[in-house]
Specification:
The structure is a homodimer. Chain A is of the alpha/beta class. Chain A is built from nine helices and seven strands, in the order E-H-E-H-H-E-E-H-E-H-E-H-H-E-H-H. In chain A, 53% of the residues lie in helices and 15% in strands. In chain A, helix 1 crosses helix 9 and helix 2 packs across helix 4. The N and C termini of chain A lie close together (7 Å).
Chain lengths: 194, 194
């Protein structure tokens, strides 16, 4: 496999981001996560928190619409999607990198240099990580995790018309609880490097 | 990962069976595929071809029902499912092995020694393999592949209430076109052996 543009989609709490970051570090290639949000914010003038929130939420859920050019209605989420897509395509043009989330697997599905990865885990593993890394919140961790992952799935479905987490959308899908974070990193590196 | 009971689910044409057979060979552990059909046929008295066909078809599609004990109706497919499940549980009791298809991932989902794998591929790769390995048929290869995989998905949904091919049902899911058959074998062996 020649591909060195690695997209990592992940369930909230699965450690997918940690895996992605470590892969970028070990391969010595750029890592894009919040950087995408920053670029979209700069391009659009929206504040980064809003871009971050909107980028993983289903459109129409918590976003208002605004009209562009009278009768032509472009929703904020569609506009942000278009901007985000453009930023991701530009990043991929620059060369090898790791891109986390934001439907990058779909946006780069026809890029022959891209390898698409999905990381998921059992609920107990996700709860443990979320509480440890993000602390407690009013909402029970399981509800928080389910809520977040459901939003990601709905958002993905809306913009890609595909099922989030379906094996066929990725080259490699791994369960980080069963394999362990380190083994996931090693397996992915073994596959993407000749 | 301690697991050495390896279940391999696969799209028709993806090379999943080849991968499964090779893993069993390299690990020196038994490989179960047609053997399950033979055992079910022996237990039930049905002929092996019928068991094979029924085991991957959605119930009610091409199967007739027969009554057991008057008003108690047990469909043939439900009866075969129960027998097949029993055979798979017995096989897993015996120790390390590779089991192909037949919802073994679901049947052994609570077995802590089991590793569940899903193999899929792009359509052009599947067409090439199917034509090369199974020859031409009246039906176009793409229709043949889609038909077979659809039946597997419907059968899986009926008996497990889960989505066939959903990453979360497996520990490892790989695209055999992108990675290549040999790389899939190596990656799986690297993960399942410490």
């Amino acid at each position: 496999m020649e591909g060195k543009i690695i997209t990592v989609s992940r369930e909230f709490g699965s450690g997918g981001r940690t895996i992605a970051k470590e892969i970028a570090k070990r391969l010595g290639i750029p890592y894009y996560d919040k950087e995408i949000i920053k670029e979209v914010a700069e391009k659009t003038g929206f504040n980064p928190e809003y871009v971050e929130e909107a980028g993983e939420h289903a459109p129409g859920k918590s976003l208002f619409s605004f009209g562009l050019g009278g009768s032509v209605g472009l929703s904020t989420s569609d506009f942000l999607w278009a901007m985000q897509r453009q930023v991701i395509l530009e990043i991929a043009q620059k060369g090898p990198c790791v891109i986390v989330g934001r439907c990058a697997d779909y946006i780069l599905k026809d890029n022959p240099d891209a390898v698409h990865i999905f990381i998921h885990a059992d609920m107990d593993f996700k709860i443990d990580r979320v509480v440890r890394l993000y602390g407690e919140s009013e909402k029970k961790p399981e509800a928080r995790i389910n809520d977040k992952n459901k939003k990601r799935a709905v958002n993905y479905k809306h913009f890609t018309n595909r099922e989030w987490g379906k094996s066929q959308n990725y080259h490699i899908a791994l369960n980080s609880k069963a394999l362990g974070i380190e083994k996931c990193i090693e397996a992915i590196l073994a596959i993407v490097t000749e």
